[in-house]
Amino acid sequence: MSTYKNLIGKDVNFLTTDPDNDAAEGQIWYNSTAGVFKNLIVGEAFSSASPIGTARYTLGVAGTQTAGLLFAGDTLPGPSALTEEYNGSGWTNGGNMSTARRSVGGFGTQTAAVVTGGNPGPSVTTATEEYNGSSWTAGGAIGTGRRNIGSAGILTAGLAIGGYTGTAQSTSVEHYNGTSWTAGGAFPSGVSSNSGMGTQTAALSVGGNPGSQSINFKYDGSSWTALNPTNTVRANTQSGGDSALAVIMGGYAPSKTTATETWDGTNWSTSSATLATAKTQMGTGPVGSSIASFGAGGYTAPGVTSGTEEFNRSLNVITAGAWASSGALGSAGYNISGVGTQTAGLGFARYTAPNKNNGLTEEYNGSTWSEQGDLSTGRFDACGFGVQTAAVCAGGKQDPGSAVANTEEYGGSTWSAGEALPAARRGAAGIGILAAGVVCGGDTGSVTDSSLEYDGTDYSTGGTLNTARTGAKGSGILTAGLICGGQEPAASNNTEEYNGTAWSNGGDLIATKTSFGASSNATQNNSIAFGGNPNLATTFGYDGTSWSTRPNMAAGRSKLGGLGTATAAVAFGGTTGPSTGATTTEEFTGDTTALNIETITTS
Questions:
Q1: Phi and psi angles of residue 31, each rounded to the nearest 5 degrees, phi first
Q2: Residue 31: its pLDDT value, please?
Q3: What whole-number distance in Å separates Cα of residue 488 and Cα of residue 450?
Q4: pLDDT digits (tens, 9 = 90+) for 166-207
Q5: How far apart (Å, rounded) are the C-alpha atoms in residues 112 and 364?
Q6: Which domains are present in the chain?
Q7: Which residues are registered as beta bridge partners of 47?
Q8: Which of 118, 253, 494, 566 is deepest in the core (most CB within 10 A)?
């Protein structure tokens, strides 16, 4: 009789805690603390990821899960020239295509991609464009104009399979060498809306029209061979991988579906992992691999979506970043300031009705807010920096009235007077800690570009902003600070970085943000900005170079408070309408990864 050791070559280990690395893959151990047997297994799962900036379908796709590319598509009401790049966390805008179009063929990498065919209008086109990571240039025209083309390969060795010419599904297969197209081996029958993957000499074409099909063909660079079909008839699926290992997701089967199948080189298997939202027309080219792919955008009922879902086949369970509801503020308000961390936060100064100039102060412990000593001078639209036990509130506004110069310092339960600002100002951004802070921009009667440094006792002149503004938000420290957004007086997408002496321009926000919240205690190279006017739910993240999308908040609002870091932030208060303050609190948690450990049962 064979034992576990004879079969596996190892004993069943008795452990008090579970292993913390993938060396335990396929093994069984007994967790003596929990009193159960466990093992580490490969799992398949989808996780929600950051939305694309512009919702659309019939897209072109290329790249990988951590360096992806979307281009073209239909925004309903029309074709798009937009390009968006994915870094595995969020989306940022790339260079626009020369010709807006939908239902395109696309393949390649994030820095070397090809778009061909599609519909710029009512008719199909032969136009091809190439992307170099920042801009598109004209490539060689494809021989047969068509749309809904199955695609595979790279810029210098690409493949266009089938497509719809406007009158019929095509059998045309063409090869691209980075300059021009040449005819390849014809597809066995006319097909469009098929999914391609692999290389120019080892490709798969899966499913497609007419009528959603289960066909699966392999290409060797000159001819096609029928392989085992998919389990579900489908067209317009998103794919990942190559001819040996692949995944397909969503599509028409024959209605919009969440179903996913994986290919092992011989057979397709229905995956237990399914898209959260049934959708189709995310793209007909491959993205990523059979173990790490994504589907973004697409068509749902009743319209287009901006949603992104990542597929992972891994020993790890990946939980995507998300916002979650938390304990409400004790008192509603907006134009509220905040500092600290997700488990030790501070909210202070706010606009409320009927007591408009509110000095209310509340501490946050990660789940609930508790009221503390009020500010001596009630105000709103104030500058804040520091931590829960050592914070600064500088300036702000009273209504009716004007900006104030008053500064107060918080010591953990009460406020005390600090050095007054040289001149009253409101709407300034704050950076740093009590003994090394910066008051940036704001309104001193007019929008200012001045910065003031605070050492816990006195203010001194800091570096001059490149762009005067009010209502910006700050994060980081005095020697590595960041501000973004606000008004100049027009709404701004500008970002500036501070080195303790001078300001320099950073990457622009994806879109303008005013009256928004930010992770006040984040770093210069890892920060998020969220919400804003007009009652936005959008979240953007900064990596020290560029901004990209993050998961949206559950509730859109403006004039909200923000605190915490880029991976553990808090959004609180704000407003969704004129003179209506909110008590709503949401917490943002960044991506987490854990081993896929399973408890063994007899059932």
A1: -85, 105
A2: 83
A3: 13
A4: 999 999 999 999 999 999 999 999 999 999 999 999 999 999
A5: 48
A6: 4-40 (no CATH), 45-320 (2.120.10.80), 323-589 (2.120.10.80)
A7: 310
A8: 118
